[in-house]
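Hi Q.,

Before the meeting this afternoon, I wanted you to have the inosine-5'-diphosphate prediction in hand. No need to reply - just skim if you have a minute. The sequence and ligand are here:
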Amino acid sequence: MIEQTLVVIKPDGVQRCLAGRIIQRLEDVGLKIVGMKMVWVNKEFTRQHYKEHLEKHFYPGLEALLTVGPVIAIVIEGVNAIAQVRKMVGSTEPKSAAPGTIRGDFSHVTYEFADKKGVTLKNLIHASDSDKNAKIEIKLWFKKDELHAYKTVHDMHTIE
Ligand code: IDP
Ligand code: MG
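Predicted structure with the ligand bound:
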């Protein structure tokens, strides 16, 4: 039940100076940051992270976006954290992401617009989509000693 999930604030989120507001939302629901760092990833790393999308038409744009500037990688822990964070992130396409979600509140572009311009959809944030992928992605982005176990004030109201 207590899960860990990987969140990456992509370069568009970092460059729009939305990192603080995005992290605030995750903290506000009582989720815990157990690892966090700023990294500027290269193409090889991006290929590993987005392995499942390598053959997709949007991959070149996705690689270009992820490597254009530093990202903030975060490991978030909490009850059903994987689904909880995906819910807060919202749908992949900003146009369809519900108001109240991170993508719905801070972005608005469409698949059609991105594909016509030959760029990737700028939707601010990545979040692991399954238990299996969360484990693989956390291992890819973080060393064991970069993750921390500690208590927050939320713990007594949620897990204890
Ligand atoms: P997710 O980020 O919601 O998990 P995925 O399907 O895993 O969505 O796609 C990874 C990223 O690739 C998306 O967040 C978005 O930035 C980009 N992307 C996905 N589909 C398209 C598309 O059809 N056109 C352009 N970019 C896309
Ligand atoms: Mg995905």
